[in-house]
Write a structure and sequence with these properties.
It is a single chain. This protein is mainly α. The chain contains two helices and two strands; from the N terminus they run E-E-H-H. Helix 1 runs antiparallel to helix 2.
Length: 60
Amino acid sequence: QSPGPKTNQWTKVTIKPKVDSDINSCLSESDASTRCMDENNYDRERCSSYSLKYKNYQRF
C-alpha cells in the first residue's frame, strides 16, 4: 500500500497526511482555506478571501 490518503471506515472521510510547515510555508493559509470550504459546503464565493490569501502567499 502507498502512504497516501487514508479513509475512515465509519464516516468515509478522506484524511490527508499533514505536510510539515518547513516543506509547505503556506500551511496555515492552506488549512484555513480548506476548513472554510469544508464548513461552507464548498461554496467558493464564501471562501474567496481565504483562497485569495492562499494564492497570494504561494507567489512568494
